[in-house]
From TrEMBL, chain A:
The keyword Mitochondrion does not apply. The keyword Endoplasmic reticulum does not apply. This is Ribose import ATP-binding protein RbsA. InterPro entries: AAA+_ATPase (IPR003593), ABC_carbohydrate_import_ATPase (IPR050107), ABC_transporter-like_ATP-bd (IPR003439), P-loop_NTPase (IPR027417). It comes from the Bacteria. Keywords: ATP-binding, Hydrolase, Nucleotide-binding. Its EC number is 3.6.3.17. It is an enzyme of class 3 (hydrolase). Pfam families: ABC_tran. It comes from Tritonibacter multivorans. GO terms for molecular function: ATP binding; ATP hydrolysis activity. CDD domains: ABC_Carb_Monos_I (cd03216). Residues 5-249 form the ABC transporter domain.
UniProtKB/TrEMBL annotation, chain B:
This is Ribose transport system permease protein RbsC. The gene is rbsC_2. It is found in: Cell membrane. Its main location: membrane. It holds the Pfam family BPD_transp_2. Keywords: Cell membrane, Membrane, Transmembrane, Transmembrane helix. The chain crosses the membrane at residues 46-64, 76-96, 127-149, 155-173, 200-223, 254-273, 285-302, 308-328, 335-353. InterPro entries: ABC_transp_permease. One of its GO terms (molecular function) is transmembrane transporter activity. GO terms for cellular component: plasma membrane. It is a multi-pass membrane protein.
């Protein structure tokens, strides 16, 4: 099977610091790939290089076999790669529907949309409501309530729903459970599995080993700016993953680039 | 849950399995009157100034009777707040982006001087003079916007500087010379267009007042029902989040300051209609008065919250207090004192609404 998203030899330098050192990356169709690594290993630079937030100095990225180069996250989004940032990127005072369609609002058909540039509120609200109920988030009663009135888990849910609604090819989740309590984390993990069951591949960046081992199909271990190995969570212990990540243990040769 | 409970990975969560499964449900119903009221204010922020406005009209109406409660007095208030109302619209849009525009008054005066001088000094047709004035205002706004969005300078500093620069340019260019009302009326009546009056019964309207009301309605529509309007709120709320969500923050900011400059230029045109002449020394308090109207109108100085209707009500409240106290024969200082109280009360209410997000 060909990877849906493939990166080869990515290099990114910030002055004298090499954040990415000839890094490879593969995401298979329909899988959840977790990316783990110690702080400063270059995880976020890798993700930013894929999501268009930074441009790599060297190397290639291919989406479905076609080379891509993004100048901004907006371009990556147009290509079907959606990112849920750790900060969620939502405007607290605006409604759920407004937030879901921020930057890609729908206009009314006909003269009211064309000349008055009127937003198609009913349609936006309907799509937002449908997407949230698809993901089982309709404990949110009112699609017009401000995002600041939602709990942390619900906000995360709305952000994931936004990505799932528009991310046609790849969804990137940056630390989706970091700020949440036990039960809210559970909801979000269920949500992630739900999105996966729709066939959209997910890149999950997380520090939470139990969560990673629970939902991931494969785990990309990042160390010193490159991919150290890819491990199967069913055949490895959490302790191994942590050992690889920190350099306490060296993976066996056949696992490299697996 | 898909993972079997026997999984060692998840066993630490087993204890939580029996606890209620609801994650922060919304408690609706059984909220007290105060909570309902607070919720209504949160959803409709212009409600507070509307209530204050209606109450102050009622109180002055009771105290003064038909002297105050007449179509003539009511429309007089509209005429008196006309200029500040227009400038406050410009200020509102800027403050919604968490910015501030201290140069509004200066841009207004410079634009009116350009309209007058281009017509009288260079002999342009008045329509062209007005057009040049509008372009001048937009250009000043563009400079503000460019410095704030591209150079990342704080709006307070940029517009504080521009205030001085524009005002000085205004005095240098006009050579401190006033164009007299009679000359304008005789040669370029179009400049006084916004000052023309018409009567409906006892009510007296000027085109400037009509323009202000239309401007408020158009801006209310644009801010609420277009993508650009939503982007203004998003940028004011959290610019980084807006950027990541796909809003072009710089373009939104520049367009906001350009619009502010354009509206100020229209205010300059209306100013010629109101005072009759073109005077480089007029309108000096417009920036402070516009900020007052915006704050009393319930728009948050921290951006992203409030509505343009609130600003309109805020401007009218100031007008009602000014006229009402004058008709009561009170010292003019009482007006300033009460407006000061209102400003602080408005910000206190804003904090109260924000404190509990309901």
């Amino acid at each position: 099977m060909e990877p849906i998203l493939k990166a080869r030899g990515l290099v990114k330098r910030y002055g004298k610091v090499t954040a990415l050192d000839h890094c490879d990356f593969d995401l298979m169709p329909g899988e959840i790939l977790a990316v783990i690594g110690d702080n400063g290993a270059g995880k976020s630079t890798l993700i930013k290089a894929i999501s268009g937030a930074v441009t790599p100095d060297e190397g290639t990225v291919e989406l479905e076999g076609k080379p891509i180069q993004f100048a901004s996250p907006i371009e990556a989004r147009e290509a079907g790669i959606e990112t849920v940032y750790q900060t969620l990127a939502m405007s607290p005072a605006l409604s759920i529907a407004d937030n879901m369609f921020m930057g890609r609002e729908l206009r009314r058909p006909g003269w009211r949309g064309k000349y008055l540039r009127q937003l198609d509120r009913p349609k936006m609200e309907k799509i937002a409501r449908d997407k949230l109920s698809e993901l089982g988030l309709m404990t949110i009663q009112n699609i017009n309530q401000a995002v600041e009135t939602l709990s942390g888990g619900q906000r995360q849910g709305v952000a994931v729903a936004r990505a799932a609604a528009f991310g046609s090819k790849v969804i990137i989740l940056d630390e989706p459970t970091a700020a949440l309590g036990v039960k809210e984390s559970r909801k979000v993990l269920e949500l992630i599995l739900d999105v996966k069951s729709r066939g959209i591949p997910i890149i999950l960046i997380s520090h939470n080993m139990p969560h990673v081992f629970e939902v991931a199909d494969r785990i990309h271990v990042h160390r010193l700016g490159r991919r150290l190995c890819v491990i199967d969570p069913k055949q490895h212990e959490m302790a191994d993953a942590v050992a690889y990540m920190t350099g306490a243990k060296v993976p066996e040769a056949e696992m490299e680039g697996a | 849950m898909s993972t079997p409970p026997s999984s060692p990975v998840q066993s630490f969560e087993a204890a939580a399995a029996d606890s209620p499964q609801h994650v922060a449900e919304f408690d609706q119903g059984q909220s007290s009157f105060i909570q309902k009221f607070q919720h209504a204010l949160h959803v409709t922020p212009s409600l507070v100034p509307l209530i204050v406005l209606l109450m102050s009209i009622a109180i002055f109406g009771l105290l003064l009777g038909s002297k105050f409660f007449s179509p003539f007095a009511m429309t007089l208030i509209l005429q008196q707040v006309g200029i500040v109302g227009i400038v406050a619209c410009a200020q509102s849009v800027v403050i919604l982006t968490a910015g501030i525009d201290l140069s509004v008054g200066a841009i207004m005066v410079l634009s009116s001087v350009v309209m007058g001088q281009f017509t009288f000094r260079y002999g342009l047709p008045p329509v062209m003079g007005v057009a040049c004035g509008l372009i001048c205002g937009t250009l000043c706004g563009y400079i503000n916007g460019w410095l704030i969005a591209r150079m990342k300078l704080p709006p307070f500093i940029v517009t504080l500087g521009m205030w001085q620069i524009v005002l000085a340019s205004n005095f240098l260019y006009s050579a401190n010379e006033t164009i007299r009302s009679q000359d304008i009326a005789a040669n370029a009546a179009f400049l006084q267009f916004f000052g023309e009056k018409f009567k409906v019964g006892g009510a007296v309207f000027t085109y400037g007042v009509i323009f202000m009301v239309l401007l408020v309605l158009v801006l209310a529509y644009v801010l609420r029902h277009t993508a650009w309007g939503r982007h203004v709120y998003a940028v004011g709320d959290d610019p980084e989040a807006a950027e990541l969500a796909g809003v072009n923050v710089n373009r939104t900011l520049i367009s906001v300051y350009m619009l502010s400059g354009l509206i100020c230029a229209f205010a300059g045109w209306a100013l010629i209609g109101r005072i009759g002449s073109v005077s480089p020394t007029s309108g000096q308090l417009a920036n402070i008065e516009s900020i007052t109207a915006v704050v009393i109108g319930g728009i948050s100085l921290f951006g992203g919250r409030g509505s343009i209707l609130g600003t309109f009500f805020g401007a009218l409240i100031v007008g009602v207090f000014t006229l009402g106290l004058r008709l009561l024969g009170a010292d003019a200082q009482w007006t300033y004192l009460l407006i000061g109280v209102l400003i602080i009360a408005a910000v206190a209410v804003d904090q109260w609404i924000r404190k509990v997000s309901v």
